[in-house]
Amino acid sequence: MIPRLIAGLTALIVLPVTANPVLSRRGTVASDQLLGFPQTVPAGATGDLYLAYQPDLYVVNGCVPFPAVDANGNTNAGLKPTGDPSGGCNKSTGQIYVRGGSSGDRYALMYSWYFPKDSPSTDLGHRHDWEGVIIWLSDATSTAASNILAVCPSAHGGWDCSTDGYTLDGTASLIKYQSVWPVNHACGLTTTIGGTQPLVAWESMSSKLPTKTPKAWKVEKSNPKHSAVVQNALDTTDFGSGNVPFNEGNFANNLAKATF
Length: 260
What we know:
By secondary structure, this protein is mainly beta. Helix content is about 10%, strand content about 30%.
């Protein structure tokens, strides 16, 4: 990775969090009981872009991705780092979050996963983990594989960018989630095709609860007027050692770290 200064960062338009009593009425829900969202993206070219570059995730060890927040703003309670590294967290429909932003003439998509615990082995690690990957694009309207400038998996608070060492399945980057004992989990590049989860865009988070079972979920269009309660939960919830990479406090800084 050859660092370059990435300046002039500007994010896409994000709906403001407005004062509303509902925003304070939330709590935590057990990780296996929190109901995530169906796949929900903006209509048109932006949603098509988000879906085109959605990465595959291969979980080498540890937890699979879980929903971090529900439509009422309740967040995942997580799990203590005890027992098997995948104990209590080896099965979930999961969730993947996406947010887009610009830096000069470049455009980035940040995809993020939440895991209830990060535990290399029993009593090591911590409750809650957030990891992800930033995909840098040369054009915010193209969905071609050749549009990718760099793929940057998250690792221990940073982003390890590669301009030519990544593998694609179509236009999807192949990413792994792994702990090399005794170090905590991180994302990295892989040649193994993993799985996908229902994709939810930052600007599309809705407080309207899904009523369909996961098997019946389809791609839903965004309902921006309901986004504030969910965004606020991700902005204000303390996930301990796990930091939400795409919330208002972290998004711009993380894009600035992902240099290549």
